[in-house]
Amino acid sequence: YTIGPLLHEGKAKRVYRTDRPDLVAVEYKDDATAFNALKKAQLEGKGPLNCRISALVFEWLASRDIPTHYLGLAEGEASRRWMLVRPVEIIPIEVVIRNLAAGSLCQQLPVASGTRLPSPLLDLYYKDDALGDPLLTDARLALLGILDTDLRDRLEQLARQVNAALLELFGRIDLELVDFKIELGLTADQQLVVADEISPDTCRLWDRATDDLQDRILDKDRFRQDLGGVVEAYGQVLKRIQGVCPEP
Ligand code: C5P
Questions:
Q1: What is the ipTM metric for this complex?
Q2: Domains and CATH numbers, the chain
């Protein structure tokens, strides 16, 4: 394959067409953004780390029979930030699953950060930066008419399967999966697959080996809260995942 024209540029990735219709190339950038891109920085090495972490996580999901867009990493030393994926139509919904309370949940409800939720809480948000990714309700979903009940059931079921698989993966490497966001897409043959990325940019991961409320944070909250050591924390996550997953 050869890389073709840019299809889409997001905050952390660029998506390119290739000369093969069944192959899309994703470039993971070093750009870090938070608070809907109000806060921005370049973190050298973040792109390759998220690319490799996402690759291993997608492989883990595949091993648990969860379909994803992931096909492989690009070959070569210069391509450590490139991933090959299946072309999909992204459903403009962010699915967030929370196992422990943190982040926006604690800002919007009287629940203390770190509270274990009685069962995983699934929230849907409308993916639209200009609107600040608003929380959806059943009525708002019906109003938008973007997700019929059948697709919604499949999407929520798939997201809960992802949560179970990720809890198993991160549990094995002593990381608490607090919450995460996924995006789903439909392939040309209408298969629903996990798309986008799964990395410390999109998950909250707390190191169970320490009780220190700051040291334990191994995810994008280090950037959001100016704690420093962002790339080091992501490196720690990759190192631990490599301990249970062989390199792709
Ligand atoms: O912001 P909030 O606390 O609702 O985020 C829940 C989880 O979803 C966090 O792991 C966060 O990193 C992730 N998220 C994301 N992209 C967004 C919003 C949230 O990856 N646009």
A1: 0.99
A2: 3-85 (3.30.200.20), 89-229 (3.30.470.20)
